[in-house]
Write a structure and sequence with these properties.
Blueprint lengths: L15 H4 L44 E4 L6 E4 L3 H16 L8 H8 L8 H12 L3 E16 L3 E13 L5 E14 L2 E7 L15 E2 L6 H10 L4 E2 L11 H8 L2
Antiparallel strand pairs: 1-2, 3-4, 3-8, 4-5, 5-6, 5-7
Length: about 260
Amino acid sequence: MSKQGATRGPRWGWMIAAALAIIPVLGVGIGTVITSSGSTPPPSAPTTLPEESPRYVVVAGQGGSERAVDGKTPIRYQHDCEGAIAAATNYVSSATRMEWVRPYGDKLIGQITDAGAESMESHREGMRTAVNSGIALEPHPEWGGFQVLACDPHSATINLWECMVVRSGDDPQRTCTTAATVVTWAADDWKLRRYETLPEDHVPGDTLDAVPGDAPLPADQRREALRAAGPGWQEYSNAPQDVENEASSRSLSSR
């Protein structure tokens, strides 16, 4: 994998559909700001990090004490930076699974966002396109990593390198993409606020390239990609370490 220098704003895995010549799945509105209801947005995150960044212990797919209405997305996180990382990770995974456009979608949006459901429609429209086209996106955040750009008791901006498997027909493809995700502390929980556009967002790997297959990167390649992306990037506690751990990793991420 080659290192990307800089990118503008979040580029999620839905855009992989364009690379696969299927359809531009969820590119619609993905860079749109999720406006908050009645509160002032936190300031943009800094674009540089100190060489020595805190180390966090985060299990992708876990972290909340309850489950949202979909029965899958964790909610009710601890009020610290590790809770914020887990929330940002799990909310992006929830979107990747298309949970936002299921019959309970409105209730789910109300549980996980600090925004009115109306402001999510541009994102949800892209998800509906994917569902109607028969594309399945299988999130594997534990295959990627994260970088804390800013975190305080009120808000956090987490750069996520999320990997997923795109399934359309008999040829699965793996892709890893980035999204700088802002969460805020509201109603005694971390809530999704918006996606941040950063002018100098150093990310691991090839953000729009798809790789045939449905297996994670080897552990040494994942770590090298994270290291090369700059300070502060780290892997999840349940990152797969070898082929034998892959099945266990998938089980954890789908809970």
